Structure formats: structure tokens, C-alpha cells
């Protein structure tokens, strides 16, 4: 859930019995026990349909969990219960705001503020809340109204918290100002775990693991029943690759909140941290209980692929079947390129290369940002099989569509595909020339361009020594480490012989250079017949 968790729940409520019940619902919401909180809110609005507060905060609950239409319905209802009730007026305008009519809603907010002479902290608080969390945010206006609230009601902990959230949402550079507001809230209630967690998240935002972790521990000590303190602590540990500690925190979270939705959050966190083998049993458990959606199905088939250390073909078949189930439920516009990529990976493991490649092409077709990466994946499959015509086809597509993303290694493979496949030495020369331009320090680029040019210059009656510059560049590009390593030995031998012949037989005769080249040959192989023959002349 990426939206700001800025919703604050009722403080001044009708009767004492109502307050306790609504307080319980709010507490469960803050603890992310959404199933239980929903039931409590439903009972509240059924038991007292005349309560503006119950309907309003039930609407806030729905907004928090992402059910905007239900939230709007409840806010509208709250606005019709008592047209003179100030919270009801705010609620009706809030429904308009979240429906998209922000202009009319804004006008109504101004009228309500005018009627209350800008002295009603509840009105100002809830209007600020709307501007802070609505679809069209106005964080500066929210800040202005919240500063009025804390001036009028200096014991309003939730207003200080919301003000801190708003300041932080405006800019991460407001971290100190936000912390100041959180500290004001803690002065009201030092055990307010939700406030301590917010301070921890500020440290987490600047990647200070120790201070963030310390604050999360403080929150857990202040209120051991506040479940989000454990979840957020787990997320911190995932972020810093502390997976054992993360799982420990998640287990504590689940001990307080053991619902399918909580396990879904757990699985999502593990999946996001690439802990697929830990995520898999959680996903299987919630799927078995009937908690499924496109995200659980996506994570399930990804995890089945990733968590298969023994490369069990039956598990790959299951992963493929689950991917089919996923495609049955996901709207077409919600399919992402990695969905096709994983299907491609699965088909690859099942030795169905054509289907694998088909999936990679589908991935590339819907994601231009990653298309070049997927084309590279396809090229690798063709390269492994030495399918040069197809390899040329793929690299041609990539070079034409994404020339800036062609890597030196890809130009290398591309040029060799032309050289060994259709033996199109002219194209090989051109591609190796691109390789040299991209990475002139790589000796292999010069060498293979030289080889391509040798093939273009085979007429013994009209030999032009077309490859001479490239062989010279190859030898010049070699480092002492390259030479000592021995991997270029045969290449050095070939280049030296070619250049030795060049300096003997071309119009550019040069005995000193010829001697130097043939001596290089003898250094590598003292018994080389050609070199010996040269020095016997």
C-alpha cells in the first residue's frame, strides 16, 4: 500500500459505550486487523444508524484499505444523517473530493470553515486529512489547517502525527521538522508506538539501519500489541538483507494478527526480498484457504520457479500450470513483462526452447524499457545453440531499435555469427568495427575484424593486406597481463605471421619490422618452420 497512512480516527464520540466500541474498531485498524475492524464498524453503523461519527470513520477505514467506492458511500451517508452536524458537512464534502469534484468540495470546505469561524479543531483536522490523503493532494493547505488544529487543541496527538506526516510527504528534507511534530505527540503520550514507528521510518529512509532498528524496538517495548512495529521492523531487515531477523519479526506480527491478509503481507515482503523459498509456503497456505488474487497467483508461479534447487521438472510443470491460472484471472492491461519472462524461463527449463523464445518476444513487445534486455536473453539462447541465422536476426533487431544498448560482448557475438554462419565477411567486418568503436581496449575486437578482412582479401594476385591495420591494433591493445596469461598466444602467432609477411612482401617492405614480427613467432614456438625459413633466407 503506497498511499500515505495519514488517516486518524475518532477522539470525541457520542456515548461512553459508543466511544469504547469505536475506539476498539480504530485500535484494530491501527493494528492492521482489518477483517476484525471491518466487522466492528459494520456492527456500529447497524446498531446506531444515526451516528455521524460511526459512518465517517467507517468511510476512513475503507479509504485506508483501498476500497474508495465504499468509502465514498459511507461519507455520503454520514453527510445525510444530520445536515447541521459539522463533521457530517465535512464528510459530504470529502465524498465529493474523493469522487473527483475537488472544486465543489473545496468551496464547501471553505464555507464550513467560515461558519465555524476557523475555530473548530475537528472540522479543520478532517479537512486537512482530506487534503493530505485525497486523490488530488494539497499538502501545503493541509499543513496550514493542521497548524491551526494543534494551536486550538494542543493535546491532539493525532493532529501532531498527521502534521509530521504531511511535512515529510512534502519533502524528505523536512525530516527534522516532521520529527519535531512526532516528538510533540510523544510528549502527550510517550507510549504511542505508532509515533515511534514513524521516527524509525525516518531513519530507515536515510538507510541508518541501527537507529531505525533501535526505534522499532522502542515501539515494540512501548506497546507489545502494536503489530505494525513488528511488520515495519521486518521490512527494515529485508531491506538490509537480515532475513533471519526479518522472519522473526514477521512471526511476531502474525502472532498478533494471524489472518490471510496478514500472511499475504508477509508473503509479499518475503517475495520482494527475493526470499522465494520462504514466501512459497505462505502463498500456498493462503491460496488453500481461498485468499487469491492476481498478485498471489503471480508470486506463486514465480516462487515455484525460483525455489527449485533440485531442478525438479514436475515443479516446473506446476509452475507453468500456475502461470496459466494466473493468465486466466489477470486483466490484460495488468500483465507485466516479467510475467512473460518467467514463463519463458519455465519453458526453457522444460526444454521447450521455441515456446521460451516466444514468451521473451511477448515480454519485449509490452515493455520498451526492458525490450533490449529481453532481446539479449533471446540472443543468448540462439548463441548457446549456435543458431547463427536467428542470432543475426535478433541482434539486427536490437541494433536497429536500441543501438545505445548494444554491449561490446553482443557486438562480438554478432560479428562472429556473420563470420561462422553465412560467412558474410563484409558484415562481420562492419560489426567488428562497431565493437572496436565501443571498446577499443579489447584486443579481440581488432583481431576478429582482422580475420574478417583476411577473408575479404583472398585473391593472391591482388592481395592488398587489408587486415594489416587491425592486426597492428590487436598487438598494440595487448597488455602485459594479456600476454603473460597465454590466452592470446595463438592470436599473437597469427597476427605476427601476417604482419611478418606484410613487411616482407607488401610495398611497405621493412626488414627491421619483419624481423621483429618473426622473432615474436619464435618466442612463442622456437620450432616454427615459417619463422625458421624466414631467418635462413
Task: Give a brief description.
With 537 residues, the chain is mainly alpha-helical.
Give a verbal description of the structure.
It is a single chain. The model is unreliable at 1-19 (pLDDT under 50). The protein is elongated, with a radius of gyration of 35 Å. Helix 2 (34-47) packs antiparallel against helix 3, helix 12 (209-222) runs antiparallel to helix 13 (228-239) and helix 14 (243-256) packs antiparallel against helix 15. The chain contains 30 helices and no strands. The protein has helices at 16-30, 34-47, 52-64, 68-81, 86-99, 102-115, 121-133, 139-152, 157-170, 175-188, 193-205, 209-222, 228-239, 243-256, 260-272, 276-288, 294-306, 313-329, 337-349, 353-366, 371-384, 388-401, 408-420, 425-438, 443-455, 468-477, 480-485, 489-505, 511-524, 529-536. It starts with 15 loop residues before the first helix and ends with a helix. The protein is mostly helical.
List keywords for this structure.
0% strand; elongated; mainly alpha; 537 residues
What is the secondary structure topology, with strand pairs?
Layout lengths: L15 H15 L3 H14 L4 H13 L3 H14 L4 H14 L2 H14 L5 H13 L5 H14 L4 H14 L4 H14 L4 H13 L3 H14 L5 H12 L3 H14 L3 H13 L3 H13 L5 H13 L6 H17 L7 H13 L3 H14 L4 H14 L3 H14 L6 H13 L4 H14 L4 H13 L12 H10 L2 H6 L3 H17 L5 H14 L4 H8 L1
